[in-house]
Amino acid sequence: MNNIQMNEAESRHKKFLESEEDCDHQYGKLKEYYLGTATGDYRCSNCYAEL
Ligand SMILES: [Zn+2]
Questions:
Q1: Ligand 1 centroid from CA 24, angstroms
Q2: What's the pTM?
Q3: Structurally, how many domains does the chain consist of?
Q4: CA of 37 to the centre of ligand 1 (A)
Q5: Which domain, by its residues, includes 25?
């Protein structure tokens, strides 16, 4: 499983929302980190929404 930084996920998710595409969150997930610590959340690897 891949990881992503929380701030990176937020900015990518905003871009996705601006694209006005749909996502069914079936693209796999990314484990969200803040610095070196897992936040306990997961992000969609397509739209970067919290799952
Ligand atoms: Zn998604």
A1: 6
A2: 0.90
A3: 1
A4: 23
A5: 3-44
Ligand 1 centre to CA of 49 (Å) is 6
Residue type, 16: F
- Where does 1-51 show beta strands of DSSP type E? 3-5, 29-34, 37-44
Q: What is the mean pLDDT of each run of 10 residues along the chain (51 residues)?
A: 95 97 97 97 98 96
Q: How far is the CA of 36 from the centre of ligand 1 (A)?
A: 24
Distance from the first to the final alpha carbon of the chain: 15
* pLDDT for 6: 98
